[in-house]
Design goal:
- The structure is a single chain.
- The termini are far apart.
- The protein is flat, with a radius of gyration of 19 Å.
- Helix 5 packs across helix 6.
- The chain is mostly helical and 132 residues long.
Length: 132
Amino acid sequence: MYAMPSEGRFHAEYDSERSYSKEKLAQMFASVEWQAQHQATLNKAIRRIIRDCNDEQFEKSEEPEVLLPHFSGHLLRHTFTTRMCEAGVNIKVIQDALGHTDISTTLNIYTDVTKELKTSEFKGLDNYFKAQ
C-alpha cells in the first residue's frame, strides 16, 4: 500500500486488495506535465484515499483494528522534515529543499524532536563521554 499507517499486516492485506496502483497515485499527486499538484488537489486525493481505506475496513468489521487518521499534505511536509533531521540530513539541505529563506523557519516550525531522536542523541553523547 502507498499510504499510512506502517503496520506490516495492514500493508500486506491492502497490497493485494487496494484499487490504487502506483500509476493511479502518480496521477493523483502529479499533473499531466509532472508538476506538483496544487495543495488543495493533493489534500482532496488524500481525503479520498483515507475515506476509501476506512470504508473498506468498516465493511469488513464493525470495529476495525486499524483506521487511517485524517492528515494533509502539509502535515506530510512537517513529517518529512522531521524524518530528514532524524536521518542526519544537513539542515541547510533541508532548508533548501523546503524553500525557506530563513533557517529559523525550518528549525523552529518544521522540525520536531521525537523521543527516539532524543534518546539516540543522548546515547551518542554518553558514548562520547565514556570514550574520553
